[in-house]
Amino acid sequence: MALPPFAAAGLPPFPSTPGPNPADLANGVPIAFQSAPLGTTVNFTPGVAETLPVNGWPSAYLPEQEQNFSVTLNHNYFGFFIQDRWKATPKRTFNDVLRYDFESGLSDQMDVSHKGFQPRVGLAWSPNQKTVIRSGFGIFDDRYAMPFLFITYPQRPAILAGADLPPNRRGAESAVYQLTQYPYIPIPGVPTPAQLAADFFRTGQVMSHSVVGTAAAPTSVGYSYTERKSPIPYSEQASLEINRDIGHGFTVGAGYLFVAAHHLLRSTLGNVCPVEGISSGPYPCDPTGAPPPGYPAGKNYYSGVPRYPAGLICCNDLSGNSAYHGGTLQVNKAAGNFFTINASYTLSHTLDDGTFATFISVPEDVFRRSSERATSNQDARHRFVSNFSLNGPSTGFLRNFLLSNIVTLQSPRPFTLFVGFDANNDLIPAADRVGNLSRNTYKGDSLQTWDIHLGRTFHFPQEGVRLEVGVDAFNLMNHVNVDEVVGVYGTYNLCGGSEPRKYKDAASLAIQAGQVGGCPAAGPPEPNRLFGTPRTMFNPRQLQLSMKLMF
Fold first, then answer.
1. Cβ-contact 522, 293 below 8 angstroms
2. In-domain check, residue 14
3. Higher-confidence residue: 311 or 276?
4. Which of 88, 208, 261, 429 has the smallest CB count inside 10 Å?
5. In 3-state terms, what secondary structure has residue 124?
6. 11: domain range?
């Protein structure tokens, strides 16, 4: 981001036209990585170069390195269960299940848990001929997140003598590639991310660095690990549903669903010096200084000095949690053999603590991870879905016609107001939030779609042979549905005392029109004018013709 202190003097941080930004001294890359070859021993000579073909390659390594990027595992997943069904009375039935799952073959990466017992129970009760009540509770285990166990498998971690870091995977010290993090802040003598990319695409060359990090000679090589004593991810699910037959093909229902997930994968970064600094041990670091003017009160501000002389230290653990509460109302109506209509409304709330292992989901403050719990960005508070189908008669002009449609109305998903640069100076530029706002305080756009289908079936004299012809229109009214909005606010505190809260509200429109000032003195003079504008869209109207021959 072309924002102070990384912007060129005299140029606006956000250009009026899209494209290369002359103010962006940071090359627009918050974190840049490049893999490079190593020798077969730890004490190799830095500066080993490898040249990949510049006219295209199937993988980011030479063919002779294939064995170093291939892993053969005897990974197995086992599941056992006992199930019982007890019909206590003609109107009351109990179901109970005990399931046990476990995985094997992951001992190099973690100490696999063998506590995978999952009890489940269900009840169905019909107090009369027109009413059914169903309820249940169960524990459901998930599998370990394999991509995050093996994404760094061929990479050798930095060597930091005496560092109090959890162990890497077994055998990592003999890996033959390294993942190097290059700084996005311009440093004399160190190539910028843009220069690295240009050199790579022109020459195909990558260069290795020493994996040994010392205070006198820091390494840019990173360190990644997954918590060895990883518990099994699981969810608790409970439900209650009541359905009632009103008569004349009319039924109503009400239900509640609760889902709580635990031990979800979370990522954080381990190369941050605490605010108070560290005065003892092999890796001391200085305490932080004063924050810039207008910095949010009560928010940690860091020194900007890494705790360890190494690159990105990525820590994956299974400490994440989420919860879903949802109540549903349903109405169903059938009118003979020709017409049916269904409608359902859901009021729900989803919370989590940032359980997506991406850079924007790492905690804003690694020492205050509990403050990440908030409304999830998957939360859709209100959702209404209605559909009907109209079948033509078996004779006459309208015979074998089918008309059906689905109407979906959904309230906005929330988004986080991101600063857009490393405001708290903790070397993590992607996760900083504006002011003291929590995650996902800004509401995006609502969703409104109407899909319709018209079809007809033609029967042939041959038995079982028929042709189905149909036309479908998705988003029939061509309603503009915004999927995601730009969440980069552009500075580290609210400007002008006004907080934007939802898509196209007065505060958002004022920002986009350049009418908001009063920003913190150390940041840009105004917020990002692209804030709150559409970033991705759902599909416009689509028409589809189909023919299906069945015989």
1. yes
2. yes
3. 276
4. 88
5. strand
6. 1-29
